[in-house]
Design a protein that fits this description.
Elements: H1 3-13, E1 19-24, E2 29-32, H2 34-39, E3 47-49, H3 52-55, H4 60-75, E4 81-88, E5 94-107, E6 110-120, H5 122-134, H6 137-142, E7 147-153, E8 158-161, H7 163-169, H8 192-205, E9 209-216, E10 222-233, E11 239-248, H9 250-266, E12 273-277, E13 282-284, H10 298-301, H11 306-319, E14 321-327, E15 336-343, E16 348-355, H12 357-405, H13 412-434, E17 444-446, H14 448-454, H15 456-462, E18 467-472, E19 478-482, H16 484-503, E20 509-518, E21 522-529, H17 559-569, E22 573-577, E23 586-595, E24 616-620, H18 624-636, E25 640-644, H19 647-654, E26 662-666, H20 674-684, E27 689-694, E28 708-710, H21 715-722
Parallel strand pairs: 18-20, 24-25, 24-26, 26-27, 27-28
Antiparallel strand pairs: 1-2, 1-6, 2-3, 4-5, 5-6, 7-8, 7-11, 9-10, 10-11, 12-13, 12-16, 14-15, 15-16, 17-19, 19-23, 20-21, 21-23, 22-23
Helix pairs in contact: 1-11, 12-13, 16-17, 19-20
C-alpha cells in the first residue's frame, strides 16, 4: 500500500472508536493507532514501529502464543487471529485485551498486510473473576436472559451446569447428569464432531473456543445456541477448569432468516447479499449465488480497500442505512450499486452488492446518443448564427480591402470586427461540440447562476421563436460542487421537455428559469412552463427510464431518467410538481451550496511578461498563415524562429546544425502526426520544451503529455498559453 493511501486510511480510521493496528509484513513494521497507543498508556498519537512495543507489555509466553496464532493464520490453518491476553500498560495498570487480526492484502500470492482491532475487556474479565472469587457466578448467570454457565473441572473431569443450561437442553438436574460422553448427543448431527474436537483441544491444550450450533431436544424442538469457553486458572496461574456460557440465540437467528427473506423479496437472488457482524465475520454467505468460496467473500467480490470498507461501516452505523449507485473503486472498470444497512439490535451489517458495469456503460452510451440527437436538433438554429458570424467577418474583410485600396490608414475598426467575429464563431463551435464529448465525472466548484447567464444564448437557440424564455435571479452569490457541463445539460434537458409540453397545447408558450437560496445551505433552481402539465398519477413515473407521455416520435423517456441519475449521483435532488403558476409542470433542482459574501471570481490564469530574447524556436504547422502568425509574434518577443510546413521541411531543418530550445507543433498534419514530429525532434534535442496546437476542439488524448492550445487563437491567448 502506497504511503499516500496509508495516510488516507489512517486519517479515516482515526474516526473509528476501536483501537486498531496495521502490520506491513514485507517491511515488518506495525502502525499503532492513536487509540491503541492511548490504551497502552502512551500519548494519544499514532506510532509506527516494530513488534518490540508488545514485548514491553505482554509476557514472552503470551507473545509466543500470539505469534504462533499469526503463523497459523498466514498458513491458512485458521481464518483469523483471535486472542485474549493480560498486559501491563506504560502507566503500570493491569489490563486484559481482546485482539482480532486478518490478512487484508496479498502480493504474488503471499500475505503482505494484516489489519486488526484491539478491545479493552478488563472490566469483563474482572467481572468474571469476581463472580468466581465470590462463588456466586451461578446465581448471577441465571439472571442473564436465555443464557447459562457451565464448568468442566479438569481434575475430577466433572461438568457442572447452571439451571438455565439444563432448561436449554430440556432436561432436569434431578434426572440428568452431564458428562463429556452424553452432552454431545444434544448437538445437531453435523456439528457433533466439531464440538468433540473443540472440547478435546480445550481440555488438552487449554485453548478457548466458540461454536454456533443447535441443540435437538427430546421432543424434537431445535434451539439455536452459542457455546463459549474460556480457560480458568487459579492465583498461581495453573489451569483448573474450562469455564463457559451457553446462550440461546434462536430469536436473533430467526431474525436473520427474516432478513434473508426480506432481502430476497426486494432483490433478485442473483444479487449477492452479505450479512457481516461487528467483528467482520460473515454470518450468512450462502445467500449469495456465488458458492465458490472466493467470491462469497465481500472483499473478493467488490474491489474496495479496507479504508473504504471501514468508512462504509461507520456511515451505516451512524445513519442506519446508506445507498450509493454507480460507485466504482477502479476508475470505472467495474461499477456497483451498493446498499449497507446496520441492524443495531443484532449488531449486523447487511451488504447488498450488485455489479452494474454493463448497465452503467449502456447508460453512458445512451447519454452520448442523446447528446448527439440534441446536437442534430440544435444544429439548424446554431448554423444560422455561424453564418451570421461568417457574414460579419467576410464583410469586414471586404471593407478592409476597399480601405487599403483607397490608401486609408485607419483600419483598426474593421480589424477589431474580424477578431470579434472569429471569437464569437469559436464560442459557438465550442458549445456545439461540447454536446458530443464523453460525459465528465470531474466535480468542480463554480457559480451556477453565472453559468446559466453565460449560456442564455444557447438556451434561447434551442427554442422556437414563439416560446418566451425568461430568467429570474435575485442577487445570489454562491458556489456548488457539481460537474459543470452536466449542470447546463440538465437544465437544457428540462427546457427541451418544457418546450415539448408547450407544443402539446400549441405553438406559443412561456418557460421561466429562476433560483433562490433555501435553508440549510441549499440552492433551488426552478424550471416552470405553460405546457400541459403532468397528471398526479404520472408524477411517480416521470423519472423512470423509457417512460414518456409525449406524442409518438417526440421522446424515448431517457432524458428525465438521466437527469434523476446525475443529480442522485452527485448528492443533488430533483423534485417535480404537476402544475405551476404558469399552468404547466414545475421542476426543482436542489444543490448543496456555499453562500458567498460577494461575487465569485474564478482563479485567474497565470500571467507573466513573455520574453524569448535569443531563444531558438522551431514551429511546425501545415497552415502557412498560422505558422507565420506564431513566428511573427515570437519574433516580436525577441525569439529566433524557424518555420516548417511539412515533414520534408522538418527533416531538412533537423539535418542542419541548428539548435532549438522550444518546439511548437500542430497535432495533426497531412503527412505526419504531432507524436511522430515530437519523436523526431526529441531524438536530436532530448531536452527541448514542447508545446502543441490543434484545431480539433473535442480531441482528448490521455497519452499526450504536452499542453495543447485550441485553434483559432489570438495573440493574447497565445501569450497566456506559452506563459504556463
Amino acid at each position: 500500500m502506497k504511503a499516500q493511501s496509508l495516510h488516507l486510511a489512517h486519517k479515516v480510521l482515526e474516526g473509528v472508536d476501536e483501537a486498531y493496528w496495521e502490520w506491513d509484513l514485507v517491511k515488518d513494521t506495525i502502525y499503532y493507532s492513536a487509540q491503541l497507543m492511548k490504551l497502552l498508556g502512551y500519548e494519544n498519537e499514532a506510532y509506527i514501529g516494530s513488534r518490540d512495543v508488545w514485548d514491553k507489555h505482554i509476557s514472552q509466553e503470551a507473545l509466543q502464543d500470539i505469534l504462533f496464532q499469526v503463523e497459523r493464520h498466514l498458513k491458512g490453518d485458521i481464518d483469523k487471529v483471535d486472542v485474549s491476553y493480560p498486559l501491563k500498560n506504560n502507566l503500570g495498570k493491569d489490563l486484559w485485551i481482546h485482539a482480532l487480526g486478518k490478512v487484508v492484502e496479498r502480493v504474488d500470492g503471499r500475505a503482505s498486510l494484516m489489519f486488526g482491532t484491539v478491545k479493552d475487556i478488563t472490566e469483563t474479565k474482572q467481572m468474571i473473576g469476581q463472580l468466581k472469587k465470590q462463588n456466586d457466578w451461578l446465581m448471577l448467570a441465571e439472571r442473564i436472559s436465555n443464557s447459562g454457565h457451565w464448568r468442566f473441572d479438569l481434575k475430577d473431569e466433572t461438568i457442572i451446569w447452571s439451571p438455565e443450561v439444563f432448561r436449554l437442553h430440556g432436561v432436569l438436574a434431578k434426572t440428568f447428569r452431564p458428562s463429556l460422553e452424553n452432552i454431545h448427543d444434544f448437538i445437531i448431527a453435523k456439528d457433533r464432531a466439531k464440538f468433540k474436537a473443540l472440547m478435546s483441544t480445550a481440555t488438552e491444550h487449554f485453548e478457548p473456543f466458540y461454536l454456533k450450533t443447535a441443540l435437538i431436544l427430546a421432543d424434537g424442538k431445535k434451539v439455536k445456541v452459542e457455546i463459549i469457553a474460556e480457560v480458568e486458572r487459579n492465583i498461581s496461574g495453573e489451569v483448573q477448569a474450562i469455564f463457559g456460557v451457553y446462550k440461546d440465540i434462536t430469536r436473533s437467528e430467526d431474525m436473520f432468516e427474516k432478513l434473508k427473506l426480506l432481502a430476497m423479496v426486494n432483490y433478485t437472488i442473483r444479487v449477492p447479499i452479505f450479512f457481516i457482524d461487528d467483528n467482520d465475520n460473515v454470518v450468512y454467505q450462502d445467500i449469495s449465488p456465488h458458492y465458490d468460496g472466493a467470491s462469497s467473500v465481500l472483499f473478493n467480490y467488490i474491489n474496495f480497500s479496507i479504508t473504504e470498507y471501514m468508512d462504509f461501516k461507520k456511515q451505516a452505523k451512524e445513519r442506519g442505512q446508506i445507498k450509493q449507485t454507480n460507485i466504482s473503486f477502479d476508475k470505472y472498470n467495474s461499477v456497483f450499486d451498493l446498499s449497507v444497512t446496520y441492524e443495531a439490535q443484532e449488531g449486523i451489517y447487511i451488504w447488498i452488492v450488485e455489479n452494474v458495469t454493463e448497465k452503467f456503460r449502456k447508460e453512458q452510451q445512451q447519454i452520448i446518443s442523446n447528446r448527439l440527437a440534441l446536437l442534430g436538433n440544435t444544429f439548424g438554429n446554431v448554423s444560422h448564427d455561424i453564418n451570421n458570424v461568417l457574414g460579419v467577418a467576410l464583410g469586414a474583410i471586404e471593407m478592409l480591402e476597399l480601405k487599403v485600396a483607397k490608401g486609408e490608414q485607419d483600419i483598426s475598426t474593421y480589424i477589431e470586427r474580424v477578431k470579434n467575429a472569429i471569437d464569437k464563431g469559436k464560442d459557438v463551435t465550442e458549445r456545439l461540440l461540447a454536446f458530443t464529448r464523453k460525459p465528465t465525472v470531474k466535480v468542480v466548484s463554480f457559480d451556477p447562476i453565472q453559468d446559466i447567464k453565460d449560456n442564455q444564448y444557447l438556451f434561447k437557440q434551442l427554442l422556437l421563436s414563439t416560446i418566451n424564455l425568461t430568467f429570474d435571479f435575485p442577487d445570489i452569490n454562491c458556489t456548488i460542487n457539481f460537474p459543470q457541463g452536466e449542470f447546463i445539460n440538465i437544465l437544457l434537458n428540462l427546457v427541451l421537455n418544457a418546450q415539448d409540453a408547450i407544443q402539446e397545447k400549441g405553438l406559443s408558450g412561456q418557460i421561466e428559469i429562476s433560483a433562490n437560496l433555501a435553508t440549510d445551505n441549499r440552492l433551488e433552481v426552478h424550471v416552470k412552463d405553460s405546457g400541459i402539465g403532468i397528471e398526479e398519477k404520472n408524477l411517480t413515473k416521470v423519472f423512470d427510464p423509457f417512460y414518456s407521455s409525449k406524442s409518438v416520435n417526440k421522446g424515448n423517456g431517457i432524458g428525465l431518467a438521466n437527469v434523476y441519475n446525475t443529480m442522485y449521483k452527485h448528492n443533488g435532488l430533483v423534485q417535480v410538481e404537476g402544475y405551476s403558476d404558469l399552468g404547466g409542470a414545475h421542476f426543482t433542482l436542489v444543490f448543496k451550496c456555499k453562500e458567498l459574501a460577494g461575487k465569485y471570481h474564478c482563479p485567474d490564469t497565470p500571467k507573466g511578461t513573455l520574453t524569448y530574447q535569443n531563444t531558438n524556436i522551431l514551429v511546425l504547422d501545415d497552415e502557412v498563415s498560422i505558422a507565420e502568425f506564431v513566428a511573427l509574434f515570437l519574433e516580436s518577443k525577441g525569439a529566433n524562429v524557424v518555420v516548417a510546413n511539412n515533414k520534408q521541411e522538418l527533416m531538412s531543418i533537423l539535418s542542419s546544425n541548428s539548435h532549438f530550445d522550444i518546439f511548437i507543433t500542430d497535432m495533426i498534419l497531412p503527412d505526419l502526426t504531432g507524436k511522430e514530429a515530437v519523436n523526431m525532434v526529441k531524438d536530436k534535442f532530448n531536452q527541448i520544451k514542447v508545446y502543441s496546437i490543434s484545431g480539433y476542439i473535442a480531441i482528448e488524448d490521455r497519452s499526450w503529455d504536452y499542453p495543447v492550445l485550441r485553434k483559432p487563437f489570438n495573440s493574447k491567448e497565445l501569450a497566456e498559453f506559452l506563459a504556463l
